[in-house]
Amino acid sequence: MICRELNSRQKIIMINRLSMTLASAFYIGYIPGAPGTYASAATTLVFFAVYCISSRIAPGIHLGAVCLISLIGVLVSRQVSCATGHSDPSFIVIDEVAGQLLTFLFLPVNAWNLVLGFVAFRIFDIWKPFPIRKLESLGNGVGIMADDLLAGVYANLVLQVLNYFIH
Fold first, then answer.
1. Is the pTM of this model over 0.90?
2. CB atoms within 10 A of CB 41
3. C or N: which end of the chain has fewer Cβ atoms within 10 Å?
4. What is the domain partition of the chain in residue ranges?
């Protein structure tokens, strides 16, 4: 088998394609309408499916997944921003994936938390109370990810308080 070395242009094309695939959460970000909401809904459904299959989501694995997706998100968001010339293209939704997963961290998995977590995260992500909006100005992919991660923290805190008082 003869392997040929890829030239630099081919490597750039491959990196951009991979980055766009990951940044768009496997093309969910290209669905017209509300791609961030679609990505959050898909993340919630996949999270629930994993829970149903495994009957448990270990907090350490959950936190590790959030960290890994966030790190990948920073890298691919920066790449896509540079490739497209836009600071935060709407099809980048890996930030919603990370923020939505962060919303469910350290909470019991049940319909109540999944629905309220989805709604709370979307509200904080769209409303962007202080200092979420300020985080968008951070550069190099960090700003794209940071605002959604903080929205996830806010949503998680709301759910933690509600779970404490209701359950």
1. yes
2. 16
3. N
4. 34-166
Return the residue matching tokens 């997706």.
Answer: 69
Q: pLDDT tens-digit profile of 105-135?
A: 999 999 999 999 999 999 999 999 999 999 9
The radius of gyration computed from the CA coordinates of the chain, to the nearest angstrom, equals: 17
- What's the token pair of residue 89? 């293209």
Please report where in the chains the tokens 């590790």 appear, as a residue: 64
**Apex 42 CA angle, 36 and 44, nearest 5:** 105
| pLDDT mean across residues, the chain | 94
Q: How many CB atoms lie within 10 A of CB 18?
A: 12
**Whole-number Cα distances in Å, 68 to 61, 72, 92:** 10, 6, 16
Count other Cβ atoms within 10 Å, centred on residue 157: 13
Residue whose pair of structure tokens reads 């081919």 in the numeric block: 10
Contacts of 107 (CB under 8 A, 6+ apart): 113, 117, 156, 159, 160, 163
Longest dimension (CA), the chain: 65
